[in-house]
Design a protein that fits this description.
Residues 1-19 form the signal peptide. This protein has 492 residues and is α+β, with helices and mostly antiparallel strands. The chain has helices at 2-14, 35-53, 178-216, 288-300, 327-332, 421-443, 482-487, and strands at 29-34, 57-58, 61-67, 71-86, 89-95, 98-120, 123-151, 154-165, 168-174, 221-223, 228-231, 239-241, 244-249, 253-255, 282-287, 305-308, 337-344, 349-352, 357-371, 374-394, 397-414, 447-448, 455-465, 468-477. The structure holds 2-acetamido-2-deoxy-beta-D-glucopyranose (5 copies). One 2-acetamido-2-deoxy-beta-D-glucopyranose is lined by residues 26, 153, 231, 233, 235, 250, 254, 259.
Length: 492
């Protein structure tokens, strides 16, 4: 026990205090896991660790010893199995050299079978007996030091050091002679103890390798659809401070062939786990450039377009509805259906402010007449729209709502003569309010947040802090892994 304390203390002493503000070079989405989050992760790690340790079978132990008045006893202990592990106290500590997890005062229950044969000159044929026993280990201490580094866009978890030390061990025999009990205590106790220590150490080594394999297998790019993907490569090494771990991913949208080169982002960012005074487990921050890259990529992919052939006021989509207002339209194309083609003329400008996300977009609204299976563009109106987007979390879903701030419109060209500006304004207003915004708001509703293996965000709050928008959240088991299953199909 003394040994362990020294061993881990020496590690902790090596851990210098480091400033919690360190810049990442080009990470546009960062995650900071606070003390509270680390505690949660540690408890989860221990819980999963215990699951892998329970039912572990220890190797058979055989020994021969001379027992006074009895003779030479050959004793075999077999089917030694860990039945239960209880952890009372555990701690996680972070320093520059790594992450230290220490479990103290753990209790381990084991069961085993025993068997002996005794032979002596008094008993030429020998005697033998067998039975079961239970073992209780108390005051067990386990410690491990982990290192987390980024390598070629993925995270690498390695085990720097680990140890397992059994405190006290007691044996309870079901049956058996008094001398056997004494023999087990005298000649076997230490062997059993080191066998337990070895088995648990092996499980730790294996467990960390498994965890590392999971990290290595994380995708570097997630395809959102056929042409657009999100770069989820890790950048820079995780920044460890005494109260948090910060990681960053590139986080920019890219078209399969293009790479977005950000203009405004130069100085790196300050990692902070502050959530406006709220104790949250994790803070995920998204830089404005993430939205800018999305805007550019979707624009270049020709995705910022929509055709409206249904309106609240359907009469507006037939030339007859315009008979008295634009007589020349009705004269040239009597009673023809119309459609409205809305297409962005430049990538939308998206800015994160201190209270919402602002979007300015320029669109060309083309009025098409449908005649004899042909689409005939008859007029085009240029519109500049500014809108604000508020983000909300409902359950495990992210939901955005767009509000129209203002718009201006002018006639770009027309084959049906001059259109009255008041007319244009009211048409555009109607199209924006009754078709475009409801459509976009519907699209922005209920975007499920990632849910991994049943664990999802809970009690999430949104913080706007130009040029970042942050989600401060707790993690909990939600069981609803619908999103992960659905979307893992797209993971490349
Ligand atoms: C963590 O480090 C900061 C300085 O960076 C220090 O003020 C604070 O007391 C430290 N906290 C703990 C728990 O050691
Ligand atoms: C757990 O630890 C607390 C104090 O840290 C102690 O009072 C309690 O007896 C321990 N429980 C067990 C089962 O060891
Ligand atoms: C993804 O991000 C990493 C790190 O910033 C970068 O090295 C890599 O080139 C990016 N990949 C693409 C396809 O943009
Ligand atoms: C919509 O208009 C854009 C240009 O303004 C054009 O490129 C696109 O082909 C049109 N789409 C349809 C379906 O007419
Ligand atoms: C979250 O979104 C999913 C699917 O998009 C939906 O089924 C669920 O009802 C939503 N939950 C809430 C609380 O809005």
């Amino acid at each position: 026990m003394k040994l362990l304390n020294l061993f881990f203390l020496s590690h902790l002493l090596l851990i210098p205090t480091i400033a919690s503000n360190q810049p990442f070079e080009d990470g546009f989405i960062s995650g900071v896991i606070s003390n509270k989050g680390l505690d949660f992760a540690k408890d989860l790690l221990i819980e999963k660790g215990i699951e892998t340790i329970v039912f572990v079978k220890l190797p058979k132990i055989e020994n021969t010893a001379y027992v006074p008045l009895v003779g030479n006893a050959k004793v075999t202990l077999s089917d030694i199995m860990i039945k239960d592990v209880q952890v009372n106290t555990s701690n996680i500590m972070i320093g520059e050299s790594g992450i230290v997890v220490v479990v103290t005062g753990a209790i381990v229950d084991l069961s085993m079978k025993w068997k002996y044969t005794v032979s002596s000159w008094l008993l030429p044929f020998g005697i033998s007996d067998s039975g079961t026993a239970s073992i209780k280990v108390t005051g067990m201490q386990v410690g491990l030091t982990l290192n987390l580094k980024s390598k070629d866009g993925t995270l690498k978890l390695s085990l720097l050091d680990h140890g397992c030390y059994v405190g006290d061990l007691s044996i309870k025999l079901d049956g058996g002679a008094a001398w056997l009990y004494q023999l087990l205590v005298d000649a076997f106790q230490d062997i059993i103890a080191s066998s337990v220590e070895e088995a648990i150490s092996d499980q730790i080594t294996e467990g960390i390798v498994k965890l590392d394999n999971i990290l290595q297998a994380l995708p570097k790019q997630v395809s959102l659809d056929k042409t657009v993907s999100l770069n989820v490569s890790f950048v820079g090494n995780p920044v460890l401070s005494n109260s948090s771990i910060a990681i960053a991913i590139n986080g920019l949208f890219a078209r399969t062939s293009e790479v977005f080169v950000p203009q405004s982002y130069k100085n790196g960012f300050k990692v902070s786990s502050a959530c406006g005074g709220l104790p949250k487990m994790i803070k995920v921050s998204i830089h404005e450039d993430v939205f800018k890259s999305a805007s550019l990529v979707y624009f270049n992919a020709g995705k910022l377009q929509m055709v409206i052939d249904e309106l609240h006021d359907q009469a507006l989509l037939n030339t007859a509805g315009w008979r008295f207002i634009v007589p020349q339209l009705y004269k040239r194309y009597p009673n023809d259906d119309m459609q409205i083609n809305i297409s962005a003329s430049s990538p939308p400008v998206i800015q994160v402010s201190y209270q919402d996300i602002g979007a300015t977009l320029s669109v060309d609204i083309t009025i098409d007449v449908l005649e004899g299976g042909e689409i005939i563009p008859v007029a085009c109106i240029s519109v500049d729209v500014s809108a604000s987007c508020g983000v909300e979390i409902i359950g495990n879903n992210l939901s955005g709502s767009l509000k129209l701030q203002q718009f201006s419109a002018y006639l770009k060209w027309s084959k049906i003569g001059k259109l009255h500006i008041r007319l244009i304004q009211s048409l555009i207003s109607s199209v924006l309010k009754t078709a475009v915004l409801p459509y976009l708001n519907h699209q922005l509703k209920s975007l499920p947040l990632p849910n991994i293996d049943g664990y999802g965000f809970q009690n999430t709050v949104i913080l706007y802090n130009y040029p970042w928008i942050s989600l401060c959240s707790d993690f909990s088991f939600t069981e609803d892994d619908y999103y992960f299953i659905q979307h893992s199909n797209y993971v490349s």
